[in-house]
């Protein structure tokens, strides 16, 4: 597949934007116009072009006379502004840009939520001494209890990703659907200062408890779909929370830390030796000479809430599925295994082989146009395979 950029991050996010057009979260012409104005590796240019398009589309939404046109314009604007936010940390002379762009993206998302039909219902999930923002999507303007998909976002996915990576297809098939901002994600990170945790069952169980109290949700027909880093969080949660009828890990992840440790070369020895002083010193030295590394460190470290690189990497090592946890998974689980998986290559198959109960694995091939992490430009095929599998295990009636 021909690349739009040599920069892997720019190219991958462009593919995500193009693929999201399948469910109305982008317009191909708008995406191609934006990327045409960006130079490879220019974070400031990336932010500027996506922000400009997002603001322009929000103006379109304000002038729309039909609810659907207004809602979809807000959805596209929200997605474009989230793409701008994704590289805000690369603009080094604008402190607070990340948070401001989050709020712009969220305002557009809230506009979509307020305009869409059937009515989307925002609600709060009690979590420890605070709450998590959540949204209930209904297949019809009714409080009839239905089978319900819980969509678990990845490490840095915007809330708009829930729409085009699961929610929209669920609604089309008669499911209700729910997504939420977990610790380290979106509003929980920016507004509430909550950070990643490896024991994700402490998040998912409150989600299920909140859903069980809602009239629109059939507690006996729940499914859990997780993308990207949630390919770890989903199986981890299912080992402890057994109220789901089925789960999907897209892709399967055994060890989150490998996405970080694969790139540190000789510093792995310092990490293994618990030599914090040397590890932090050499990481600091490296970021002095690479603006792209400074961006990556700031962006990837923020959800952990830790300043020291050594502390971040040590914390990430806790995000592993141990044999005893895997042995406790009783829920049927589908593992996706895309060609050219960039972050956790080989892990989907390794997870699948260790699972003890009902399980399936599905390959998404490059020749199908569905390779790469989370199948960004294969959304039609991805939805067909994942939801056919879910429909067989969580029937409509």
Give the helix tally.
17
Q: SSE string, helix = H, strand = E?
A: HHHHHEEEHEHHEHEHHHHHHEHEH
- On the 0 to 100 scale, the average pLDDT is 97
Largest sheet, in brief, is: 8 strands, mixed
Q: What is the share of helical residues?
A: 40-55%
| Coarse morphology | globular
Number of domains: 3
Please provide a written account of the structure.
The chain is an alpha/beta fold and 397 residues long. It has 3 domains: 8-111, Up-down Bundle (de novo design (two linked rop proteins)), CATH 1.20.1440.110; 118-256 and 319-393, Rossmann fold (3-Layer(aba) Sandwich), CATH 3.40.50.1820; 259-316, no CATH class. The chain is 48% helix and 14% strand. It has 17 helices and 8 strands. The chain has helices spanning 8-19, 28-36, 43-63, 67-85, 97-115, 159-172, 186-190, 201-212, 230-238, 258-261, 267-272, 276-288, 291-301, 309-316, 323-327, 347-354, 379-393; strands spanning 121-127, 130-137, 146-152, 176-180, 217-227, 246-250, 333-338, 359-364. The protein has an 8-stranded mixed sheet, sandwiched between helices. Helix 9 links the parallel strand 5 and strand 6. The radius of gyration is 20 Å and the shape is globular. The model has no long low-confidence stretch (mean pLDDT 97).
Brief summary of the model shown:
The protein is an alpha/beta fold and 397 residues long. The protein has helices at 8-19, 28-36, 43-63, 67-85, 97-115, 159-172, 186-190, 201-212, 230-238, 258-261, 267-272, 276-288, 291-301, 309-316, 323-327, 347-354, 379-393, and strands spanning 121-127, 130-137, 146-152, 176-180, 217-227, 246-250, 333-338, 359-364. It folds into three domains: 8-111, acylaminoacyl peptidase (de novo design (two linked rop proteins)); 118-256 and 319-393, 3-Layer(aba) Sandwich (Rossmann fold); 259-316, no CATH class.
